Each structure stands twice: as structure tokens, then as C-alpha cells.
Amino acid sequence: MALKLMIVDDSNIIRSKITRTLTQHDMQVVATASNGEDAVKLFGAHKPDVVTMDLTMPRMDGLECIRALRKIDPSISILVVSALADKATAIQALKEGAQGFLCKPFSETDLTEAMEELLGEDAHG
Amino acid sequence: MEGAYAMLKLGLGKYRSIVVLITLFLVFDVGVLGMTFVISRQLTADAISINLAGQHRYLVQKLAKTALLIDQDATQGTFDSSGRSSLNEVKDLIATADRFNAIINTFDGGAKLPDMTEELALTPSQDEQAAAMFALVKDLWAPINSEVQSLNQPKDGHRPDVGPLLQVLIPSNLNLLASSHLLTSRLEALSAAKAARLRGGQMAGMAAALINFAFILYSFLGQLRKSDQAVERAQRETEDILRTTQEGLFLLDPDFRMGSQTSHALSRIIGVEAKGGENFLDLLKPLVTPKTYDTTKEYIELLLRHDVKEKLVASLNPLDCIEISAVRPSGAVESRFLQIRFNRVLQGNKVTHLLVTVNDITRRVKLERELKDSERRVQDQMGMMVNILQADPRQLQDFLRAASDGLNQINEDLRTASPTTGVSTPRVDAMMRIAHRLKGDAAALQLEAVSQSLHAFENVLQELRVLTRRSSEDLLPVAVRVKGLYAEIAAIQDVIARIGQVRGVVSVEPPKPPHDPEVAALAFVRQWRSFAQQLAQRHEKAVELSYQGIDVEQLSPQLRDAVNTAVNQFIRNAVVHGVEKPADRKMRGKSEAGRLSVYVSDQGDGTIELSFRDDGRGINPEKIRAAAIRSGRLSPEAAKAFDARQLTLMIFEPGLSTREHVDEDAGRGVGLDAVKDLITRLGGRIRIGTTSGEYCHFRVQLPVKVEPRDDHIDAPIKEVA
To answer: Crossing angle of helices B557-573/B672-681, nearest 10°?
Structure first.
């Protein structure tokens, strides 16, 4: 069964790149959001298995959004996809409950490998 | 339950044999104790038996004595008429007989004497001989007992009649006494044998326990030694690894404390003393910015959490490349780039430690930066285009061809270098000559960027030259530079091609071939003058260059190239070393500007002659002597033996410079040797005339028809029209 994915990113280009790449790898994009608020609303309705999360977004940033999503489902898998401008913020996001980080810009292989790593059985990769 | 069993099994493991031995030891001890208990009970029973048998002897005697006393009283008339005293003696008789009976009953098993605290199996029943003796005692006793019991109901006033008793007692009294005595002796012998058995058993048990104990001790010490050896070996191996590894290595615990063992390289790499057990963050604090410090702390905390994917957070490591100031063993402070990486150490599913690896990546970072710089320079085409447009097209083409040839040759040398020994010193010298010549030409064409790149390339080659062993790793910076230079040359060619396209579009007429030799040489002369002025300015000197002679443009490309290279090198040599500063010249009565005279003539015998003269300070043999000693080319003794002519000729030797520091223009001792090299290859010769303080004059003769002597001169040789 295809895994359900939600993409949270304010860039249309990034959203379609993630969609294009991961739908080829047996994932089904059930929702996309361009800000944290929408993401929280859509999350309850679609119950995705995995979320890719940008950090800098209008109307509720990534950090807050991760906190909100973890409150709804503490076991959700979150991959932070963000530019490496501020390592401290990215680390903060992981401390809030995301499990992995992918640096923008990324190639399709980077994204697929990161997703495989994120969903791998072994928590220590 | 199963887990506990497994743990027990696991726990026993290597201690199994010791546990077995200790169990045996305890079994032996319990055995000895048990045996002692049983036998000592029997000994107690034996003692009682002996005592009772002894009593029998005494009772028999007492009975006989009492009976005789009663009888004596009766016959001597001492009998009390009341019969009271005799009555007491009869009572005594009966009591003695009762005691005898009680002992018999006790020996028979059943009864227990009132003075015995516990019931014991007494000996006579356990031994045949004793039993037979006891039976005899009983047989002898039975009739006596019967007679005693018949005295049991005396009547007052009647004398007790002990006659029948004495009749039975007297004949068997001695037999009974002897039998009782024999029984006692037999019981004593049995008891002694048992006591001996007990001692023997105890001794054997104790000996077995002691032997066992010795085994335990031996086995335990053996295992202890074995495990100690294993621990020592493991420690030694770890120590060897930590001492030899070139990386900084240590374990970090969740409290940020470094493990007790760290690799020896660690302190050297980070430039401060790092001790095991120290707090890593305290060590890091003075090395990084407060922000990096905070981020590192958070990053480590993140890695210690098991739910984050290690691979997916590696790019967030704030210490992946940090710049620090480190103190070298010599005391000098240098800037260093470090890479500190963290890997999880797991026990089961729990992250117990992080393995920290510290590497000095300065060399890599610098190479990367240089590569980026060279890329940046390549991209800086606008500035270059301006210079290319200003340069003489033919000279530019000559330069590009020479550069391409030279780089190909260097590249070939690098490609065929031995992986272990690298390239030989003469090959490095040859590379330096190529680089130096190209640098001069590039500077002359005012290709500043290329000239600077070649200067940096010379630096790299110089560093390579001083190495005693040159590994392929040492050649890496050279290869990086060559790659950069190829890119720069290619970029120039690209620009030229683009300019060509633009020219094609706007149809610029090509310049007509000039006729007047003075005018024809102008392109060259203009470049020589410009180069001389530029150099003079840099060295705060003044020069004037004059030219006379044939049209250099009309020479074959090889000759033109050779003449151009030689003149450029002579100009450099004259301006840097020969021509004095204006004030100095004035004092010596010379014009303030140094005069450089260039003359190229066709000798009419198939050769041309290039003459270059400057009116500077000439060549000072003493300065060359000093330089030769300083560079190690000559020992002070050998240098002393050289005359002025020999010393003057040394200016054509590679690696000799009278300058004490290196800059873009001179000081490496490469230059005139490159000219000599070039002229020799073309089959020419070079002469030098000089008077110290007055002038220096180079005269170069070159054949017009040149047979190629080196395989990288492959263009056809043209005759001069």
C-alpha cells in the first residue's frame, strides 16, 4: 500500500519537485500546504504517514507546525526540507520531533535516499 | 525465568570449573563433618558401654561381699534381734542386683538407664565376640539373680537366709567377674579401633579437601592470569591504535565528558592539550564562536536521542569545517581548518556514547579555495578581454602556443611520474624554467591574471623542489595549478575566438604587412619597452630601450619566440639586477635612466645574432660566489677556487640567484638558465661580456635553419625571406 505523504512548503516549484519524485517511488501525495496553518488543518483530514516540512513559511512557521502536528500524532515521520542558512533552527526542528533533515537545493536522488533512510526499519540508520 | 536461566548460564561461563571445584570442596567438608558426627556418637555410646561393663565387675564384687556379710552375721550371732540391720543389707543386695539387671536390659537394647540423656545403640549387640561374652555374663547371672529376688520379701524377726544364694554365687562369682572383665576389655578394643578409623577418615577427608583447595587456587590463578593477559593485550592494541592514528579520536559520553583514552594526534591537531575525562565543550569553547558552541551542544544532544536519523542530520554538524588558530610546536601561530565528526556508539538500541573523529583538513580546504579562485579568475573574462585586445595578435598566438606546449610537457611529466618517488629534481627544474619563461611572456603581454597564476605555480614548484621525497600526494597541488592554467589559456583562446567572430561580423580589414624594419619591429619593440618600463617602475628605476636591426616579425616562429623570450629575460635580468637606482647612477656619473640596447642582425652565414647590452653595474663575481655558497651549490673551498670567468658563467646555472628574497620578477635563480636551455635546443650559442660597475653584454647566435632537438618543437622551420 502506498504511503500517504503531505508536502508543506511555500514554494510551488519545490512542492511539484517533491511530488514528481516521490510519486515515482510508491508514495501518494494526499495533501500539500504552503503554510503551517493549512498544514495543521489538512493533517487531521488526510492523516498522512509522512510529512516533508519547510521551515521558513508565512502564517505559522515549520517549528510551530511540527509542534502542532506532533500534538495530533506523536508518531508522525517528519523530514525537514530547508536551506542550510541557519543550522541552529534546523537542529531545533529536529529537537521538536522531526527525524531527518534534507538540505535545499537537493537532487531527486538526494530526496529518495533521504526518504528511504527516514522510513527505514532501523532507527539509527 | 528463561532469562534468569540464560543469565545463570551466561554468568557461569568461564567460571564453571571454579564453581565445580568449590562445590566439591564443600561436599568434602560436609562429608568429613557428617562422618565425625556419626563416629563421635558411636564413641560416646562406646564410652557408656565400657563404663556399664565396668560397673558389672564392681556390682558382682559388691553382691558377693554383701551376701557373705549377711551370712557371717548369722553364724557369729552378731545379728541384731530385731533383724533391722540385716534387712538393710538385704535391701542393698537387691538394689545391686536391680542395677545389674538394668545394665543388662540396656545392653539388650530397649531400656534406657535413668542417668543416660539419650538413647544410644550400645556396642555389645554390634560385635559378635562382645555379644557372646555378654550372653555368658547373662547365663552366669540368671541363677544368681533368681536367688537374690527370692530374698525380696523378708519378714520381721526372721533372719534372711542367704545360704542358697551363696551356693550359686560362690562357684560362679569368679567366672562372672572374669566374663565382665573380658567384655569390658573387648569393648575398649572396639572403641579404640573406631577412634582410629575416625582419625583416618578425617585425615583422608581433610587431605581431599586440601588437594581440592589447591586445585581451586591453581585454576583460579590460571584464569585470572589468562583474563589479565587478554585485558592487557586489548589495552595494548587500543593504545597502539590511539598512538599511531593520524586522526584525533575519543569517545564522548552524554554529559559531554571525553573518554579516558584519546588518540595522541588529537592534541597536535587541535593545538591545545586535550586530556581524557575533560569536558569536550570546555575544550571547544575557546576555539569557536559562541553561536557555533551553542549549536554544537544542541547537535550533540540531538545525536544522543535515538529517534533521529544519524545520516539525515550529518549535514547539520556545525563542526564539519571550522577555522581555528593553533600553536605549532615551534611556537608559531597558524590558521587551521578542522573537521570534527560524530558517530553514534550503540549498545542494543541505546546511544551510549558518540565516537568523535577530528581531522586537520587545512590542505584540502586551501586547495578547494585555490581551485575556486582560479575558477573565479577564469570567469573574469572582461578584464582579460581588454588586455587581449591591446596585445599584438601574433605575439599572443606565439604565447598561447608556447603555453600550451609547456603545460603539455609538464602534464606529461606528472602523468608519467612514479607513484612512489614522484618526479626527479631535473624534471622539476625543467618545469620551473617553463613556468618562468611563460610568466615573463605573460607579463610582457600584460596578461596580469595569467602572470600571477604562473607566479603562484612557480611557488608550488619551488615547494616541491625542496622536498627530498615527492609522493603523488605532493604532486597534487602542481596538478591542480596546471589544470587551472589550462583553463585560463583555454579561456583566452575562447575570448580570441569570440573576438574573431565579432571581427567577422564587422569585417575589420587585417593590417597590411609593414616594410620598414624599424616600423616592422615596432610591435615587438613596443612590447619590450612597455615591459621594461613596467619592471623599472616596480623597482623604482628608470630605463630606455633602443632597438636596431632586422624585422623580427619575419623570422620563423621558433626564432621569433626564442628572440622574444631571450630579450624579455635579458630585460628582466638587466632591470632587476644590472641597472642601478637613478640616484646611484648619478653618483657614478651615468645618465639617470639605464640604457638597454637591443640589436638583431642577419650574419649572412645562416645565423642571426641577438645582442643585448645594458650599462648597469655589470656582473660582480664575488656576489655570485656568495650566492653559490648560500644556495649550497658550492662548498666555501670550491667557491674560493673558482676564478671570475667561471663564476660569471654560473649565472646560467639553474637555481642560482643573487637575490635574497623571491618576488614576481626574480630571485628564484630561474631565468638565464631557461634562456640557455632554449638556445642550446635551437643549436645556438651564447656569449657574455661584462665589466663590473660598467656594463653587461649578451651575444646570442642562432642558426636560421633549425633542426628540432626536442620532440615538443614540431612546427616546420621557415627560412627568413
So the answer is: 160
